[in-house]
Design a protein that fits this description.
Chain lengths: 534, 161
Amino acid sequence: MAKAEPVDILIVGAGATGAAVAWRLGQAGLDVLCLEQGDYMDPAHYPSTRPDGELASQQEFHVSPNVRRREADYPINDSDSPIAIANFNAVGGSTILFSGHFPRFHPSDFRVRSLDGVADDWPIDYQQLAPYFALNDRMMGVSGLGGDPAYPPIDGLLPPVPMGRLGECLGRGFNRLGWHWWPAYAAIATRPHRGRPPCINLGPCNTGCAQGAKASTDVSYWPEARQSGVRLQTRARVSRITLDAQGKASGVLYFDADGNEWQQPARLVVLACNGVGTPRLLLNSACPTFPDGLANRSGLVGRNLMLHPLGYVEGLFDDALDSQLGPQGCSIYSHQFYETDTSRGFVRGYTMQLLRGPGLLETATTGFLRREIPPGTGFHAALRERFGHLAGMGIIVEDLPDPDNRVTLDAELTDSNGIPAPKIHYTLSENSRHMLAHGLERGKEVMRAAGARRTAAFGPVRHTGWHLMGTTRMGNDPARAVVDARGRCHDIDNLYIVDSSVFVTSGGVNPVSTMQAIALYIADGIIARKRSAP
Amino acid sequence: MSSVLETGDRTLSVLLGDLLPPDVGIAAMNTDQLVAFAAQHARTSQLEALQKIITGECTDASFAALDAPAREAVLARVRRKHLKAFADFFLLALQCYCLDPGVRQAFGDIPGAPFPAGRDVADGNLELLEIVYERGPIFRVPPPYPASETRLTFEDPPPCS
Ligand SMILES: Cc1cc2nc3c(=O)[nH]c(=O)nc-3n(C[C@H](O)[C@H](O)[C@H](O)COP(=O)(O)OP(=O)(O)OC[C@H]3O[C@@H](n4cnc5c(N)ncnc54)[C@H](O)[C@@H]3O)c2cc1C
Ligand code: SF4
């Protein structure tokens, strides 16, 4: 096995959080190397640049690695879960596919036990993260509108993504019901921003933004991180973390693109492989000192997986809403049912996220499969009635932590390097079920209030396990948490975790804004530590 | 059975004419285009499977030789008895059809990829938000932490650009 030159700080994973932490550490002048199993993406070849681009989301840009099967992907056994895992493996990680919907956690999300008597409080809070939310917004280029009554003041936003006729129509519906709504927070540049051009409303953000307006981290954090001296090595798949005689992390073993195995020594290791990849790596790093997986004396590595069960509501409108135009996941959102009200029959709450309508092909195929668009003479009229007339809405349900929902290692399945693959065990809780049912009904209600002629609602939707949280939870008590309030493993003090594995609870919002703020905050802890004891 | 690519069998073209007939600004679905599309996506077998099923359902005359009501009756039988084969075929045809730039244009889905000009989306009326704003904050402010619990801060974080 070849041995690489030692580095001071080694990051594993170049996605949402790996990029943020790399940039922050690089800015502080530290010696940083990031290993990423995927490659750089070439935006010039994203599906939206091709006439058949809409097909790609069902093939090589599918959200599931099990369907996509690109070279960088690893298989995930999610047959034991009603929700399949969604991710992407490349420089930029899952942000290559993300919608860029960018709400923050609420202040109350960090105090769930104190306020609602469930789960646990976080050892950090909104106040502490506030400067990091703001810093991250500047780096990612977040658009939105100030004055939102769902949040403490948020400044410095780029102008909001245009809500379109669709957003206006649904906004009127929310107003009729007296419910909260607001233009979406979006990690999408609406003006030129830090070298990125503005959004031109191409729409298919979920198969990569060829324009570079969406802040996938390959175009937001990484260019600046690399400028500050951070090295990024692609096609490097880490198989395990190694320990020295003192029980400290001494580096990692990884496979390069040709299948050669390398030893990479490091003084400090940071994991940013996401809520499935990080516990997988820790479990795969079991050794005599940690027979149940590295840093797993608490037994909590892989446990408390939270997924945000997602419900889908659809409304069909007589008016042309031009709903196929604009960033797919960013128009308006509502937090009317976000904060706990126990009279609803559940604790905690959910986001209603308006989604733009599907493209022509998806409109036609789902219409046919639901027997709403008949082949033959009625085909074109029925398709015209739907294309651009459909509004979608995601109901993002807060999932409470449950130790039985977990990531383990599959006994047989491996990736192309022979590394054991993760297996998902997940069941929807009663609380999530009630919340989802409530959200689906309220979604239909607002569609009707906005004038929808027909509504449909269902959930949980299978291929929506894209928010992966809780599998190495944060806490002050080593018996009840994997990392401390600084993101440092209780069991190994030079091993850090910065991705949403550390989430104590899941909130009811898309997580990247919060996880990147946490990653920046943890980075500052590492910097402070390095400065006090280099 | 010989391949649909090779025979002069008109089953496919007549079938497509029935399922995706011409419409304002759109010609009937082009058979050659579908055959090429299916070959490109390694799905020729789905065309052949349905062609075979239809042929099997037409005992007296070829499908192409039947009049419209008779073809409709055959198709209704096929859909009832061979739903999956029919759905696979039609979904494949839809993929080919709906990705055609001419069809997209006819449905107003312009400009097409690679979107040189971008697309215009209405800003929407932001005044509608006044009433939402006026109702005031809806987020909860958590109680202060007990004095015994110190919050972690990192003094003197490095400057950032
Ligand atoms: C279709 C889709 C839509 C989404 N929309 C939104 C949205 O609108 N808003 C939002 O907030 N979130 C959204 N998300 C979720 C969001 O993208 C993820 O939560 C986020 O990117 C996770 O960040 P991360 O840093 O934890 O991991 P990732 O971004 O997933 O990055 C992890 C990286 O680690 C690498 N890696 C893993 N294991 C190894 C290993 N052993 N060796 C080397 N490298 C490794 C992977 O290749 C990957 O690049 C969406 C996700 C998807 C898939
Ligand atoms: S809508 Fe905007 S952000 Fe989304 S892919 Fe198009 S240009 Fe990029």
